[in-house]
């Protein structure tokens, strides 16, 4: 593998974040382009420009952190996010329009939604910022970037989330990005300049807003040509580059974003990646194919973020429409990866993880030789891993059941026998995960966080560990303090990133 520009890889996170927030395709890149042009007009200092560039790419990377909770409380979290994307939270008419778009006009549903939404949205925004900060730390970005990412949902008037800063105390990069983001969302609205000015001094920095409103036509012209190459050209020099190992770290973050869609997906991408690569070695495939399979396994399910967690978490049988959404998630994987040149070579392989030799798979219905040896190994690895994980509608299957299922796929011609043999051999050879080494957290704090990662409530964790919910909460508070976070979702991500928790269930 060659060296990569870090920004090009992180652009993949931007594309996936758009899907995970229910935003239009390319919204993140358009807002980046507008932000860069606005920074020129403001003559933003170099350090703030660098922070602005990375905030634009990473601003919603934590968007899936509370997707399950949002879906459980409010319904389709993607529809809710889309309905409120351009809304002014201080304008009651905007809030009501968003609520009507999200849940419809039935008074009981509307009132219930409006009662639940503030707390759910606050939890989502705080967790989203903290996860983005953890990711920025994993990528080795400067402290100014991490600081600005923690303020993405703050407001000029101090009424944002987490509500720790306002006014001139907000990072310049955050203030500029907020205006650029809102302007992009308002681009097709009547008189976007007037709508921007109405938010000045409330949601947005009045000075930055005034400059943007006076230059609306020029800024909106920039967004029309917001191709990735143009956005990358705005990165301040020197450009950050990463070698193969660090490039895989970015892919691992992409997989993490996908796995956060539901507690049942915890560690799925890493398991598929590791098993597919090991199966390729068992099968005697070339080293470059082993490496490609490892990378493809990490990002195979990024398209999952385009499907609501209400579907992934559903315990009853899926409707035909919901089943079709699930079958389309590999398509969204391919589309997201193809948008980024540094990841495009993985698109065809990564999106083939549900294909079958007899054409019964999805989303392309490949058959016969159209399913490459590498794709067959990835599909077999995914089948083994998935059947060993619990799902809302079924428990995890044991190794005997999984072996029988994969053998049945081979006997029926759905998967090549050689690919199945290699995956079964690799799965049998995989060592159990070592216990987490001593570190920041105590053994009890790790045990509590491990169950938090599985989606259990404090009451359920207390029952499992034979301690009171109050004691569970105390362990969580201690873990939060050690990890530098304040929410359950961001604590899990921070603990995984610090090696305090394992992603592996097997």
Automatic annotation (TrEMBL):
It comes from Petropleomorpha daqingensis. SMART domains: HTH_LUXR (SM00421). Residues 434-499 form the HTH luxR-type domain. InterPro entries: Cyclic_di-GMP/3'3'-cGAMP_PDE (IPR052020), HD/PDEase_dom (IPR003607), HD_GYP_dom (IPR037522), Sig_transdc_resp-reg_C-effctor (IPR016032), Tscrpt_reg_LuxR_C (IPR000792), WH-like_DNA-bd_sf (IPR036388). One of its GO terms (molecular function) is DNA binding. Pfam families: GerE (PF00196), HD_5 (PF13487). Residues 243-438 form the HD-GYP domain. This is HD-GYP domain-containing protein (C-di-GMP phosphodiesterase class II). GO terms for biological process: regulation of DNA-templated transcription. PROSITE patterns: HD_GYP, HTH_LUXR_1, HTH_LUXR_2.
